[in-house]
Amino acid sequence: MTHTDQSSLPRRKFLAALGSVTVGAVATSAVGGPSPVNAAAAAATDHPIVLVHGAWHGGWCWDRLAPLLRATGRPVHVATLTGLGERVHLARSVTGLSTHIDDVVNLITWEELKDVVLVGHSYGGFVITGVADRVPDRLAHLVFVDAAVPISGEAFQDFHPPEFAAKNRAAAEASGGVAIPPLAAKDFGITEPRDLDWVDRRLTPHPLLTYVDPLALRNPARNAISSTYIDCFQPPLASLNTSKARVQAQAGWTYQRLETGHDCMVTAPSMLAQLLQAVI
N or C, which end of the chain has less CB nearby within 10 Å? Predict the structure, then answer.
């Protein structure tokens, strides 16, 4: 990347005053001071936010974040992708990546949304990239929250070690070829017992075809949409190393760091809300 805005939001700096500091050799932007409500009152925007969850999750995973964003006066829409969360009963062997892209495109279309800030977590990076390819004129900004950043021809399984991908496919085939059994909440960087229980009882199998479907991108207009990457690095997920390197090697991205685990909307919703308010 010829120009990268690299920022960090460690827990120990979260309550610091809004401004820039330097930690070692890394430029760090600390977000604090006003609450999300007060911060937004000073800089209100009518850009609607659409939240897209990752694999094995559902719209429920944003339950702690969405109210904080709505309290700022922003319109917030939460998608649950077909075959996941409360829509788990709709999973079929034909539920593919294009189905999930359709889910979000249709939400944007039927809600008649424009200038959307589209936020994708983890696997949701595939979905929001596909949405940007379909309806770039409806989008104002893309936010990849510890998410995959794919290029055309890549599938979500390509971001995992071959043995892990093979294990997932085998597990799905053993259960009828429809979906991959969920991982455990601890695999997403969650450590608090109450959070572990809350997430574990909500995770659902993930449709197999969405895992192996390659993403087909055809519309270069998507490249004009401004984009932010939020790196949740404590602890990091090795499967996202390629995405993070890809972002930092390209011009035009804003790159932020958040010192929490992969499921930051569960473990650090206030910090994520502050950061989203700052970047969008």
Answer: N
